[in-house]
């Protein structure tokens, strides 16, 4: 049944036409990929079958050239929830037994072809692509704005103009085969819950699935706050974490192992400070593109007095020379 549904969808969209094999053609074979789709409560939703091309047999410079296709970063996705499947792109090459009129999953150039087509069509409707996140599109209307975030072939749409949102949906449905799933309840491993108090985001289910897959459900996790200085027993590199709020909503968070060895806790804290400032500047630029001008300084909390002193002191010496790039970056951000 799932295979029949997939074939019917591909044929109804005019994905290919049967032709004789061209002379000296490099034939790209295909295969079936099967998966199970679950609801947020882990009950089976449907069986899914996907016909994909064996793109790994293609040769760069012969069968394809451009492959890059951006996707909305998780930070952008997390910002849109509080604020509030597409046919593939055309393919120009004609080297198949089934001569493709549209790209299918598995081809090296499919993501690029799809995104180029989507960008062109949505741009004709008045949407502008954000410079900070190229998979985010913004349309300014008389009543507010409409925002689209694209993750592969999934689209999140939100904004302050309800009529504009419906018009954008109608426009997309004219150009693509779409399915309106309504308010998202689960997206990219994030469970979304709505209440009169706002929107709640949780990755508990995603984390539990990872623990179960790795057979770690019986372990006792360790929690790190700020910087775990020289916590790695293998190379003594530090682990740092940060989180940011916008309008009282937690929108970005991260925990990463630093790439260099810090010789003191102050150095580890300072490098974490530089990473956090990069995140803050990115968020400010994203908000600016969405029409929210925030001119006041963004408070950043640090509990290490030595790191704070280095940040406020424009003069560096030998003990901070090896992290001078971070020092100047942080100092420049503070002074601006």
Automatic annotation (TrEMBL):
Superkingdom: Eukaryota
Protein name: Retrovirus-related Pol polyprotein from transposon RE1
CDD domains: RNase_HI_RT_Ty1 (cd09272)
SUPFAM superfamilies registered for this protein in UniProt: DNA/RNA polymerases
InterPro entries: DNA/RNA_pol_sf, RVT_2
A Pfam family that the UniProt record links to this protein: RVT_2
Domain Reverse transcriptase Ty1/copia-type: 15-78, 93-222
